[in-house]
Amino acid sequence: MLTHDAALDWIARWDRQQEGYLPDREERFTALIDAVEALDRPDPLVIDLGCGPGSLSARLLSRLPKARVISVDADPLLLGLGRAAYPHLTFVTADLRTPGWTAALGLDRPADAAVSTTALHWISPPDLESMYAELATALRPGGLLLNGDHLDTDDTAPALARLERAVHDKQTERTFAGGRPEDWRAWWDAVAADPAMAALNAARTTAGADHHGSESHLLSQHADALREAGFSEIGTLWQRGNNRLLCAVR
């Protein structure tokens, strides 16, 4: 059985491997939560899209304890870790690529913000367009979409795109000059080898929750889809190389 303490340990290990790709991950979390706080609501309703094991949701509630956070993902294993580690969070199983996913959220009012980190690039451009269109119906006017991810400048500006990637890569090299943390694949291999994770790992395999490739890694793909969905203002709030916090106002 997966215990509370074991789940916390696995999530701490998850955070370390994620930082191997994002040495400024915590800084991006902070900028994102700053933006939610700037909405100036004591009890914001926030949807965490592709929440994984709840790393962002937990940090958001730690900073804004009166917030209501609904954490959404389709991966049974990551959701299982989150539910065991953070019983005070609300986790919802839903695939953002499947129309009607917002019905599973149980919203009693439009949300003030939707947030995401290192998740939405897995979604193909057509599915991204429909997901953002449905998200727009769940946000209040003036509500925010805050998406932290590696989003490359469009191929029409190749020199800028190359420089953005270089800035990120050089920072990563400096940060981990003494050795990199375990990578994504090694973390999943370790999970598969843990008997306490067997049931969740089997559920993940059945659900077909594994990801392959980066489907929508261009900034323009997200900006165009958000604009088509009716978001009025779209821009970057925080950036380090090609790692950025994209913001869109409903």
UniProtKB/TrEMBL annotation:
Gene3D superfamilies: Vaccinia Virus protein VP39. It comes from the Bacteria. Residues 46-143 form the Methyltransferase domain. Keywords: Methyltransferase, Transferase. GO terms for molecular function: methyltransferase activity. InterPro entries: Methyltransf_25, SAM-dependent_MTases_sf. One of its GO terms (biological process) is methylation. This is Methyltransferase.
